[in-house]
Amino acid sequence: GDTASTLGTPVDGAAAGEKEETHIRVYWHDVVSGPDPTAVQVARAAATNASKTFFGAVVVIDDPLTEGPGLGSSRLLGRAQGAYVGAGKGAMALLMAMNFVFQAGTYNGSSVTIMGRNEVFTAVREMPIVGGTGVLRMARGYAQARTHTLDLKTGDATVEYNLYIRH
C-alpha cells in the first residue's frame, strides 16, 4: 500500500495542538567595559588589529537579559551565554552562538539556542532559533534584534530581542 495508509495519516502539529507559539521580548546587555564585563574577548587574529569590522575576534559572553532596557532598573529574566565571532571582512557581521537561559518567570529553567549572522549596524537583524530546553524543548523559530543603545566609546550595547518560537 502507499505510505500514508501503512504509517497512518500525517497530522499537522499546530492543528493537533501539539505546537505552541510563543513571543518573548528581552533586552540583551553586552558589557565590555568596566571592572566586571559580561563579554570578554578570548582570541583574535593578527589581522583583527587592522580590521574595521572586528574580523577574527572571538568574544565569550554571559550577558544579562532583562525585562526592560534599563540594566540596573529592570527585572533580570536570565542570561545570554555563548560566544560571538567577528566573521565579516566587509561589514560588521558577527556569528552569534548563544543560549538564552531563563531564570525567572514562566520560562524559568528553560532555554533557547540562537545561532546565526548578526550584521550589527542593520536596523533589524534576524537569526534562527535552533533549539530549546524545558518548556521550550524542541523550539524552532527566529529572533529579531534591534539595537536600543550603543556606546561607541565603551563598546557597551543594549539590544532588544524579540523571540518568535514554536515549541
UniProtKB/TrEMBL annotation:
Main location per the UniProt record: secreted
GO cellular component: apoplast
Regions crossing the membrane: none
Gene Ontology annotations of biological process type: phenylpropanoid biosynthetic process
Subcellular location: Secreted, Extracellular space, Apoplast
InterPro entries per record: Allene_oxi_cyc_Dirigent, Dirigent
Keywords: Apoplast, Secreted
Lineage: superkingdom: Eukaryota
The protein's assembly and partners: Homodimer.
Protein family per UniProt: Belongs to the plant dirigent protein family.
Function of the molecule: Dirigent proteins impart stereoselectivity on the phenoxy radical-coupling reaction, yielding optically active lignans from two molecules of coniferyl alcohol in the biosynthesis of lignans, flavonolignans, and alkaloids and thus plays a central role in plant secondary metabolism.
Protein name per its UniProtKB record: Dirigent protein
Organism annotation: Panicum hallii
